[in-house]
Write a structure and sequence with these properties.
Elements lengths: L5 E3 L2 E3 L3 H16 L18
Antiparallel strand pairs: 1-2
């Protein structure tokens, strides 16, 4: 099972297993359609500043 951690304004948001899976699959689907991303993905870090 993937381990997804969501942090908003430096506060970790608890995610149930379903939400971790959903967040992981959305990001993996996006990345797998991007040519520059390696085929073997082990970790992903995303930092978004608004």
């Amino acid at each position: 099972m993937p381990n997804a951690i969501l942090t908003v304004n430096d506060k970790q948001i608890p995610l149930k297993d379903f939400m971790q899976d959903m967040l992981t699959n959305i990001i993996l689907g996006y990345l797998k359609s991007t040519k520059a991303v390696p085929e073997n993905i082990e970790t992903i870090n995303i930092d978004i500043k608004l």
